């Protein structure tokens, strides 16, 4: 999608630090890491948010979830991690292309702010 920064990253029009990639998804380091390990997992297909997924995205969403543990292993997050999706205004979503934050290598707190 035009004017989408994450589509541009997926299409390699904007450089990023890629951790994992296949035909459906790409995982790259966050520009402003909130933990020693902070990557974003995105579908290559433009979907605006988790609130915009439809039935035909079921396989893609399952693919993302099933890849999390593989990416966590690549990043050596053997002690655990946090997977976050910010959705919409109240969820403080700033980039309108579906993405999951994978954070690790520090003790997380709960509840989130
Ligand atoms: P959100 O707030 O939408 O859940 O998360 C967007 C994330 O994208 C933020 O953590 C922000 O640091 C990251 N981000 C925004 N622009 C870029 C970029 O151009 N490159 C990378 N690698 N991360 C970005
Ligand atoms: Zn996009």
What order do the strands of the largest sheet run in, or round the barrel if closed? Answer: 1-2-3-5-4
Overall mean pLDDT = 97
Percentage of residues in strands: 15-25%
For the biggest sheet, the summary is: 5 strands, antiparallel
Number of helices: 2
What's the count of strands? 5
Rg (CA only) = 14 Å
Name the structural class.
alpha+beta
Terminal CA distance: 31 Å
List the ligand species.
guanosine-5'-monophosphate, zinc ion
Q: How would the global form be characterised?
A: globular
Helix proportion: 10-25%
Query: Which oligomerization state do the chains in this entry correspond to?
Result: single chain
Give, in order, the helices and strands.
HEEEHEE
Uncertain spans, ≥5 residues at pLDDT below 50? Answer: none
Please describe the topology of this protein.
Elements lengths: L4 H6 L7 E4 L3 E5 L7 E7 L14 H17 L6 E4 L15 E5 L9
Antiparallel strand pairs: 1-2, 2-3, 3-5, 4-5
The structure holds guanosine-5'-monophosphate and zinc ion.
Q: Can you characterise this structure?
A:
The protein is of the alpha+beta class and 113 residues long. The chain is built from 2 helices and 5 strands. The protein has helices at 5-10, 58-74, and strands spanning 18-21, 25-29, 37-43, 81-84, 100-104. Strand 1 (18-21) and strand 2 (25-29) form a beta hairpin. It is globular. The mean pLDDT is 97. Guanosine-5'-monophosphate binds at residues 5, 14, 16, 28-32, 40, 86, 92-95. Guanosine-5'-monophosphate (5GP) is lined by residues 5, 14, 16, 28-32, 40, 86, 92-95.
């Amino acid at each position: 999608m035009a004017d989408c920064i994450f589509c541009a990253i997926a299409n390699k029009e904007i450089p990023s630090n890629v951790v994992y990639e296949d035909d459906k998804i790409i995982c790259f380091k966050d520009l402003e890491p909130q933990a020693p390990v902070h990557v974003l997992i995105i579908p290559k297909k433009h979907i605006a948010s988790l609130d915009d997924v439809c039935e035909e995205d079921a396989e893609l969403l399952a693919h993302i979830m099933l890849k999390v543990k593989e990416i966590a292993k690549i990043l050596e997050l053997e002690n655990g991690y946090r997977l976050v999706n910010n959705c919409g205004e109240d969820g403080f979503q700033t980039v309108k292309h579906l993405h999951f934050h994978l954070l690790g290598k520090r003790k997380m707190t709960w509840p989130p702010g």
